[in-house]
Write the structure tokens for this entry.
Amino acid sequence: MPIRILPDTLIDQIAAGEVIERPASVVKELVENSLDAGARRVEIDIERGGVGLVRVRDDGAGLAAQELPLALARHATSKIASLDELEAVATLGFRGEALPSIAAVSRLRMASRVAEAQHGFEITAEAGAVSAPRPCAQPPGTVVEVRELFFNVPARRKFVRSDATEASHIARLAERLALSRADVSFRLRNAERVLLDARAEPDRSRAGEARVRAVLGEEFLARALRIEHAAGPVSLAGWIGLPTASRAQPDEQYWFVNGRSVRDRLLMNAVRLAYRDVLYHGRHPAYVLYLMLDPRWVDVNAHPTKLEVRFRDARQIHDFVMRAVERALAATRPARDAAAAADAARTMAATDAPRLRPDAARPREWTRSPWALAGAVRDAGPASFEGAGLESGPAAVSDAAADHPLGTALAQLHGLYIVAQSRDGLILVDMHAAHERVLYEQLKAQYAASGVPSQQLIEPILVHLKPHELDAVLERRAEWERAGFDVSAMGPAQLAVRRVPALLGGQDIVRVVRAMLADLELGAAAHHLDGTADRFLGALACRTAIHAHRRLTLPEMDALLRQMEATDRANQCNHGRPTWARLTLAELDQLFLRGR
């Protein structure tokens, strides 16, 4: 077949395939045009999942009669006029492709009126054929009706899903658009059914929160932290869900860059890393985040749909986002006015609906060294009370102790849990999970500073390993040494340990080393921690923390509670499990039908 120039109709249909993927794409392009036109109210109506009808009505600036034909011409736009403006584009649209692409694969009608005109004008297009403008009754603003989408492209029509599925895509898109602009009212109707009605909040200081509440519900805000962070011309704001508010699917993750809704892998990865040691394996965080930066630092011209962006300094933006979210999550520690991490963890697998608030102002000083606690636990004698795994405690709790978020310890339950009394209820603490977090945070701080404190052994301890296990240790020898170990080979299947971390004094070193090897081998493929150092320290903390059936004295229990209150991320262990739960007095009264 000889080379030929394609007809304009076919060119338009090919171009439309890049921009208009499904009915939701039509809604996106039309609403973005409305927002660029300064609209303060946008109404969206759909029928048959958007295939039968998509109508977008706004109260924006409108178009004059002579501009209507240009609006349907390819590469005609009012957004940019030069390369410099393209590199610093701040509008949502700028390519001049959306309207002609839609007109090429549908029956389109557009009516518009500028504020100073006495009446509006309308124009129609069918399969790319455009009529002349003619007068019509139209309030200030613009309305675009798109009917019978893909009627002239049967191959594309076959890929359109059911009406319910396409309506669902449009509803989720409308939510993203509504979250992007809290100062604009949005309404979405499917036939006569209202799917979204988000009204603008007059009070600017409350607009963002009001919009999140309207779209995602009060429950999201109750389980989220407000985040605001800036570094020079770059700022990050929004809400991040608490670790206990994680979800089975990544269906509540919203990113906005300079007001544009995006799905950017770099940004999503930055948040994922920030949650890496507070989120249970396989769970996903929920968040609504707004990144603002100089438009010249981000390229929004990476793809026709404009959902992907490229940053001039991707590494700097990635680290900025990760550190900001990480610092906010560090405040997730026990607080007296907070519902416990595990209050909703009891139903986390079924409902994704926990509730927790942090105490970001609590000081970070240590109540007692975790190494001292570990030693005290090892040296503790048998419990004075022998019963069903429960150690007796004082009958009354002092006001000073009860004022602590985790109260004061009363007993140990089945060698697994600490039972404590707080000012307003009963506290249960998973002692291993809690101590694991305390040790892990301390290990991370020491590892980053100068290495983990260690002690020299009088004689080396020999650990018999398989040859491949020995090779794995020697390959990561530097990490073992920085974590407080001195290891070397003593033959083809024997490891000599000459120095160990200080917290391992008195423990079975052979057992700990073997357990860490098993954890690290598993973690290489499946661990939720991404950095090798974090995996190493996490395994060390897990294998060193207090284990089940270790009897603690009441002072030792209280020491652990105070350490939790002063430790970052103490509401979850290193694996993302809750470390404590609370039953309030009201819940206990309800349980025993008191007052009825």
